[in-house]
Design a protein that fits this description.
The protein is an alpha/beta fold. The chain has helices at about 15-25, 85-95, and strands spanning about 5-10, 25-35, 40-45, 55-60, 80-85, 100, 110-115, 120-125.
Length: about 140
């Protein structure tokens, strides 16, 4: 039997990334730190779906205080989350300073990026009627 466990992404600022995912509706489920390995694992999930987690891996800065940057091949396509109301979710994200890279013009799909630049797809169950200001917003950057 195969069972989905989690998707792991590397993050440079765990607190900022947790705040981002909380805006979508995820909550921290558990955390593990390793002094020897110099890393922290933080697991997040949508309430009631704790068996489908996002694992945030934070590798601690080196002795000189520098942190590794994660770009290009160190990340992947995107995470996807179904949301209760795509317009309300995008408004909450935008009000918190998150850029909506692909607005939900069709009432069904939007894309945003985590603080570390990882693409997140937001999907409405079904479609809401097109609504302003979303219906006329252009794409911003890549998604």
């Amino acid at each position: 039997m195969t069972r989905y466990l989690h998707t792991m992404i590397r993050v440079t600022d765990p607190d900022e990334t947790i705040r981002f995912f909380e805006l979508i509706g995820l909550k921290e489920t558990r955390r593990f730190s390793s002094e020897q390995g110099r890393f922290t694992l933080i697991y997040l999930a949508a309430p009631g779906q704790e068996d489908a987690e996002v694992e945030l891996t934070h590798n601690w800065p080196g002795e000189d205080g520098s942190a590794e940057e994660y770009t290009g091949g160190r990340n992947f396509g995107h995470l996807a989350f179904q949301v209760r109301d795509i317009y309300e979710t995008c408004q909450r994200l935008q009000d918190a300073g998150v850029t909506i890279n692909r607005p939900p013009r069709d009432g069904h799909m939007a894309f945003v990026r985590t603080p570390d630049g990882i693409s997140v797809e937001l999907l409405q169950d079904g479609r809401l009627e097109p609504a302003e200001p979303w219906a006329s917003m252009p794409n911003v950057g890549s998604w």
